[in-house]
Amino acid sequence: MRACRRWSRFKCYCFKFNRSTSATTGFTKVNASPVTAASYLDVATAAGTTYYYKVTAVDNWGGESAQSAVASGQRSPDTEPPAVPTGLAAASAGSGIQLNWSANAEPDLLGYRIYKSDSATGTFLVLNSGQTVTGTTYIDTLAQSGQHWYYAISAVDLSGNESALSAVADATVLDTTPPAVPTNLKATGVGTGIQLGWTASGDADL
């Protein structure tokens, strides 16, 4: 048991919090580590949603109280967007173009939106139907082979605020598929040597 550091007359104690969007069910733990102060700021919440809380007291002998009565609250509107993502890099992958970037640090971060253009200064269109990506990597499997593509990403928080676009990264999908095997090879002896003939491949990039 992790040591607690808030003391009553006889022993030290700390607190655990549980949260739900229902007043009666679905409560899950909020704080990963016990809290020693008699207050706590829950930043992983969305504006406009009512959250319900229960708290328990834990002592450093492992005893835990019953849950408190329920308290509820609603976050004030959040209009501040996350920081612009950094570290975006693009490279050809076997199935398209792979993007990687550095993670944002905002505790209320929802994820990232991916944008793509065929020009560094052109119009960037959102990929993945506008759905956010929660990780820091994405593979664009729709990028056509041999064409150069440009990408930028934004960060989105739980309140729907979206950052400006990141710096642009670009890459070309490399063709790693070999041509088809030639067929109908024939060798015919002639007076000046051996004449070879075969059926031409239908590969467009041959």
Question: How would you characterize this protein structure?
Answer:
With 206 residues, the protein is mainly β. It has no helices and 14 strands. Strands 1, 2, 3, 4 and 5 form a five-stranded antiparallel β-sheet that branches. Strands 9-8-11-12 form a four-stranded antiparallel β-sheet, with no helix packed on it.
Per-chain topology:
Blueprint: E1 6-7, E2 12-20, E3 28-29, E4 50-59, E5 71-74, E6 89-93, E7 96-100, E8 109-117, E9 125-126, E10 137-140, E11 148-157, E12 169-172, E13 183-190, E14 193-199
Antiparallel strand pairs: 1-2, 2-3, 2-4, 4-5, 6-7, 7-10, 8-9, 8-11, 11-12, 13-14
Helical content band? under 10%
**Continuous helix count:** 0
What is the number of strand segments? 14
Largest sheet: 5 strands, antiparallel
The parts where pLDDT drops under 50 for at least 5 residues are: 1-10
Sum up the overall morphology in one term.
Answer: elongated
User: Which series of helices and strands comes N to C?
Assistant: EEEEEEEEEEEEEE
Distance between the termini: 67 Å
Please state the average pLDDT score. 87
Q: Please report which band the strand proportion falls in: under 5%, 5-15%, 15-25%, 25-35%, 35-45% or over 45%.
A: 35-45%
Q: Assign the structural class, choosing from mainly alpha, mainly beta, alpha/beta, alpha+beta, or little secondary structure.
A: mainly beta
Radius of gyration (CA) equals: 29 Å
Q: Quick summary of this structure?
A:
This protein has 206 residues and is an all-beta fold. It is built from no helices and 14 strands.
